[in-house]
Amino acid sequence: MDLIRYFARHRTIANLLLVIMIVAGVMAATNMRAQYFPDVVQSEVSVTVAWTGAGAEDVDRAIVQVLEPVFLTIDGVAAVSSRASEGRASIDLEFEPNIDLAAAEEEVQAAVDAVSTLPEGAEEPDVASSAWRDRVTDVLISGPVGVDQLARFADEFTSRLFAAGISRATITGLASPEIAVKIPSTALMRHDITLAEVAEAIGAAVATSPAGELGEGARLRTGAERRTVAEIAAIQLRSSADGSTLTLGDIATIRANSVNSVRAAFVGENPAMAIRVDRADDGDAIRMQATVAEVAADMQIGLPPGVTVELVRTRAEQISDRLTLLIDNGLTGLALVLVLLFLFLNARIAFWVAAGIPVAMIAALAGMWALGLTLNMMSLFALIIMLGIVVDDAIVVGEHADFRVRKLGEAPAEAAENAARWMAAPVFASSITTIIAFLGLLAVGGRFGDLILAIPLTVVVVLIASLIECFLILPNHLKHSLTATGEGRWYDWPSRQVNRGMAWFETRVIRPVMRLVIIARYPVLAATVLALALQVALFLRGDVQFRFFAPPEQASVSGSFAMLPGARARTRWRCCVNCSARPMPSWRAMRPSMGRTLPPSCWPKSAAGRAAAWPVPRRKARI
């Protein structure tokens, strides 16, 4: 209480604290990172085992059922999920939160190395920890050029991104160039050679290794890089005493595959390459997307006609929209509060009470930055729901101070201090109950608990900032604002009229109703219980369903189409040139399937043409 009195009577300390809170919030806002979701690191380790030619049942029996019991014995493993498919087994290990993922990966690798009962044809298990990724945007490069050319454009674009400071960019939509070697089984049996011997010969022929330095920056390497079909075909597999040799080209069909256009994406009839840009742990999504947009605009200038570089699946717009929503809601709430306060309080009190909204919200940004929070979907959601709560404390203190001046006749300074003292306990209790309610979210563990952690922390920071503004800054301003109470200023005319009407409403309506409620207290209690029972019945009958997350309307539609192996695309026939038929089918060929269902715009223009397309059948006369 002495602290409230000191801040209320000091000439500058309240204003100094106000400036410090605003400056700290503004500085924190410029340094806070903006992102879509909070940084949630998945504590998972994946183990992949390839077994070429094995069916899903064999993979499950020989690999999954062997490795799963071993992984369940590792300390810290919370769950194990496995998938057995044709030629591959994938096992995901989820560890408990706050575990050292690097040490967990080493334990998994040690457990895999200790297993010696895997099938002979299976490859070495691949153990990898999950990498944290947060998508910023996708970049789509498309145009009427070859897939090879698009791949070069994609490589150049990623190089420009790295030069601009963006280190996480992944190209999708194509496969790397490769040389395929196909050997018939009959050739292997005829020459008495195995695939393992062929693979060993190819590996030895194409491998190179450093062999020292010659001086002046020149380095020596042993071996020869064989990258063409002719060089691969000339690899010697066997030599005889008579000087004859067996080369790889004698028994195999060798084919060079460039970038795989089958796996490329398409925009209309043009192939496309997609580049996914992810945010690093310390990256800002809005700034990164702006950088990507600048790089795309610079690269677009030098591309051939028809080739475009555009940003899709952008996340920064959604973050900016949420920030805009926060600002709009804040300004709207501030305007409504000002209007209502001007109707019930004098103008000066209304102004300083309403000023508590932006001050508390701006100061809360400093606390969020100190706690390591960022501007993301969760923290912005918490800020939006707190807009209607932070102003309540200031309204209670301001209205009580005005009451003490008008009704009790206290001096402005005394009324401001007494109002803060009298309202300290209820306002503090109200804030504490809200804080306790939101702090319950901290008990939610796991990945989802880490995702919503920003909500309770943001609420706590905002309420603390609101309490500081309400009891340390507001009383000093109320002391000066209450001096104009009762002077009949022109801008206080709306509040005088509303207060006169409220006095009439209190005397003629509220008091008689309260008297009736007290007299008929038992019927009122029964009506209250009945209303509560009706609400519970709606939930028990299932009229009001429980859903943890309401499904929001998506901004995009995606579809997936799967084709059987060896399926071919069917030619789509159209009815005419206007319908882009390629090639143009004959009318007689189309008539049995389409007939007169064609629109009039697609009919033959002449009567003779229509008669030829759809001949009228003749009827036989009945005798």
What does this structure look like?
With 623 residues, this protein is of the alpha+beta class. The protein folds into 4 domains: 2-36 and 318-487, Multidrug efflux transporter AcrB transmembrane fold; 44-129, Alpha-Beta Plaits (2-Layer Sandwich); 135-177 and 261-314, 2-Layer Sandwich (Alpha-Beta Plaits); 178-208 and 223-257, 2-Layer Sandwich (Multidrug efflux transporter AcrB TolC docking domain, DN and DC subdomains). It is 52% helix and 14% strand. It is built from 21 helices and 15 strands. It has helices spanning 2-9, 13-31, 56-72, 101-113, 147-163, 185-191, 195-206, 229-233, 248-251, 285-301, 316-344, 347-354, 356-370, 377-406, 412-439, 446-451, 454-481, 493-519, 521-540, 587-590, 607-613, and strands at residues 44-50, 77-85, 88-95, 126-129, 135-142, 169-172, 178-182, 209-215, 218-222, 236-239, 245-247, 253-257, 265-267, 270-278, 308-312. Strands 5, 6, 13, 14 and 15 form a 5-stranded antiparallel sheet that branches. Helix 10 packs across helix 11, helix 11 packs antiparallel against helix 12 (347-354) and helix 11 (316-344) packs across helix 18. The chain is elongated.
